[in-house]
Amino acid sequence: METPQKLEHLTGEPTTTDLKLPPLKIGEMVVDPPILQAPMAGFTNYAFRQIVRGYGGAGLLATEMVNARGFHWLDEHEAEFPDRLWGVEDEARPLAVQIWDNQPDVMAKVGRRLVEEFQVSVVDINFGCPVKQVTEKAHSGSYLLREPERMGQIISRLVEACAPTPVTAKIRLGCSENTINANEIARVVEESGAAALTVHGRVAEQYFKGQADWDRISEIKSYLKKIPLIGNGDLDSAEKVFRAFRDYNVDGVMIARACLGRPWLFAQAAAAIQGRPIPPEPTLNEQRDCMLEHYKLVVERFGEAKGTLLMRKFACCYAQAKPGARHFRKHVANVATKEEFFEVVDKHFPCDVPSEPVAS
């Protein structure tokens, strides 16, 4: 068995310091540990969340972002719920559902439905998505950072509709480097009744390029009087999570893209902030088994054809930064059946030692 890693301070000296963080409260709900899984479109579905829960360490999980207007249309036409709500009704709690749109009344109706019928723990509003289909075409997501008054209207209506379930907001620093207004937006979010604010440390025009600005995230704390500040951006190791809490004025952190191929990252981060030895990375064979369990859950829901297609991108995440990852991605990008998927995994997924072939 591998020896658990110890966290390294910037000085290079090993430590297992317990940061003794105060509880993170979102409304009346305690998030323990104060580490949240970010909502990510196309990725954080029920299958992925179940894998994360299996490893532990995430205090609050979240769905993919749900188009409120689309959900409302389906509801009015008595159609099936969006795929992005797969598993939500029966899933363990706490669980947040993130929604987006720019119409306060529509958002309020959907929020109320999520609270009454799905009994979600948190309704989160996406004011941070930089994708053009959401911003330029729908005037939603990070586009609304240029309209603080409208943001306030959306939040207020949702808070009223969802009570007593807490409503939270996720933003970016601004739309561009020349229009950074996160401090002003933070006040609007709090004054409108939101229970927490999550800030991604980039502006929308950056998408995911460059580095997240944690100094600017930290600065926002002084503009909040009651609600917690959650920082997000570039948290790809337990050490970085530890330093985010130690060096910046945040009450919680949110892990995003780095967890997609490493769902055990939450458990490692939780150990780091609690002063426990950090669990080692799973062996390559264990990571492969995790990926196969993920594939099984996806296929059970969507069937072999669609499930295999959806799993291509997840498989690429699991292989990221491993020896032969590029070669594996090249082959897995074209699989269409279970048999093809298992064959590619057997032949090309990195492994520690020869493992048993995958049974199809």
TrEMBL record:
InterPro entries, alphabetically? Aldolase_TIM, DUS-like_FMN-bd, DUS_fam, DusB-like, tRNA-dHydroUridine_Synthase_C, tRNA_hU_synthase_CS
Q: What is its EC number?
A: 1.3.1.-
| PROSITE patterns the record matches | UPF0034 (PS01136)
What domain of life does the native source organism fall in? Bacteria
Broad EC category? oxidoreductase
Q: Residues in domain DUS-like FMN-binding?
A: 37-348
- Positions annotated to bind FMN: P39, M40, A41, Q98, K170, H200, A256, R257
Q: Which UniProt keywords apply?
A: Flavoprotein, FMN, NADP, Nucleotide-binding, Oxidoreductase, RNA-binding, tRNA processing, tRNA-binding
Query: What cofactor does this chain's UniProt record say it requires?
Result: FMN
Question: By its UniProt entry, which Gene3D superfamilies does this protein fall under?
Answer: Aldolase class I (3.20.20.70), Putative flavin oxidoreducatase, domain 2 (1.10.1200.80)
Keyword Metal-binding applies: no
Tell me where the signal peptide lies: none
Query: In the UniProt entry, which residues are flagged as the active site?
Result: C129 (proton donor)
Q: GO terms for molecular function, please? A: flavin adenine dinucleotide binding; tRNA binding; tRNA dihydrouridine synthase activity
> Which reaction is recorded as catalysed by this protein?
a 5,6-dihydrouridine in tRNA + NAD(+) = a uridine in tRNA + NADH + H(+); a 5,6-dihydrouridine in tRNA + NADP(+) = a uridine in tRNA + NADPH + H(+)
Would the keyword Acyltransferase be found if you checked this record's keyword annotation? Answer: no
UniProt cross-references to Pfam families, sorted A to Z: Dus
Sum up the protein's function in the record's words: Catalyzes the synthesis of 5,6-dihydrouridine (D), a modified base found in the D-loop of most tRNAs, via the reduction of the C5-C6 double bond in target uridines.
Family indicated by similarity: Belongs to the dus family.
The identity of this protein, by name, is tRNA-dihydrouridine synthase
